Amino acid sequence: MSQGAGDSGSLLLLAGLLSVLGPSPTLSIHVYTHREVYGTVGSHVTLSCSFWSSEWISEDISITWHFQAEGSRDSISIFHYAKGQPYIDDVGSFKERMEWVGNPHRKDGSIVIHNLDYTDNGTFTCDVKNPP
């Protein structure tokens, strides 16, 4: 009988700790992209990435695009924007075919990929951070 009482006490303590911790003091940023984008081989496509934050856009904002090829388990970074400068990763098949067209002050992190190839089929992910 004492074990049952001990278990109830543990559960009550855990519930008490969770209510004391409360919600996290961080604020979220909402990122919007198209679910699917289609292009034809040899053409170009714009990968749109817009975002919304209730906070002002800081000078430390960063935007990173990742690519995961269809059938692959790994993703690679293909583009990064930080400290007011765009950086196209110098490895991989996108390095000479990518163009930064976004403007973080307009809440836009879009890129264009030129000269599409069959190997470009996969998942592209836009990640935006607006510290603090």
TrEMBL record:
GO terms for cellular component: plasma membrane. Residues 25-132 form the Ig-like domain. Keywords: Disulfide bond, Glycoprotein, Immunoglobulin domain, Membrane, Signal, Transmembrane, Transmembrane helix. Coiled coil: none annotated. It is found in: Membrane. Residues 1-28 form the signal peptide. Pfam families: V-set. PROSITE patterns: IG_LIKE. Gene3D superfamilies: Immunoglobulins. One of its GO terms (biological process) is myelination. It is a single-pass type I membrane protein. SMART domains: IGv. Its main location: membrane. InterPro entries: Ig-like_dom (IPR007110), Ig-like_dom_sf (IPR036179), Ig-like_fold (IPR013783), Ig_V-set (IPR013106), Myelin_P0-rel (IPR000920). Belongs to the myelin P0 protein family. This is MYP0 protein. The lineage of its organism: Eukaryota, Metazoa, Chordata, Craniata, Vertebrata.
